[in-house]
Specification:
Length: 155
């Protein structure tokens, strides 16, 4: 497994892209109540009002396995929650959504995460690229996945 993480200002654009009609995608889970892109965006934006001073409240993570891996919905959900915990993000306090894409030969999911928790505290994303690489290695071993060679993101 390999992971990639970025931060951004706008949840709307990311949600629109990940849930775009015509994409081979499905919402696997998370802790947001909304089901449409508009409802999901509004929920994330409402949470972000708790810390308006944060310039990039939107965290986007992709977790990718090698082509040929068989990962079911429950495994992806468990891996997503494990990823959050490995990154020291409380999945009970930070809004997140896990979306599976089937637009590439390799299985992968996208996580949309609010850096702002429901109590207004902020996740500080220092060294996230390194922590994501370490988390992906732990998830690879824990779930018995094939290692992905360095330098191959594929997402």
């Amino acid at each position: 497994m390999i992971g990639n993480v970025t931060t951004g200002k706008n949840f709307g654009g990311l949600i629109g892209y990940l849930l775009k009609k015509g994409h081979q995608c499905s919402i696997l889970g998370g802790n947001v109540l909304g089901r449409t892109p508009k409802e999901i965006r509004q929920e994330f934006e409402q949470c972000n009002r708790l810390a308006r001073h944060i310039g990039k409240p939107c965290m986007h993570v992709s977790l990718s396995a090698r082509p040929g891996e068989r990962i079911d919905r429950q495994q992806w959900l468990a891996m997503g929650r494990d990823y959050l915990r490995l990154m020291s993000i409380d999945p009970d306090k930070h809004l997140y959504l896990i979306v599976e894409h089937r637009d590439r030969p390799h299985p992968h999911v996208h996580l949309i995460i609010s850096r702002i928790s429901t109590d207004g505290s902020v996740y500080h994303n220092h060294w996230d690229a390194y922590k994501t690489k370490a988390a992906a290695a732990i998830l690879t071993e824990k779930y018995g996945l094939w290692p992905v060679p360095d330098g191959r993101s594929g997402t």
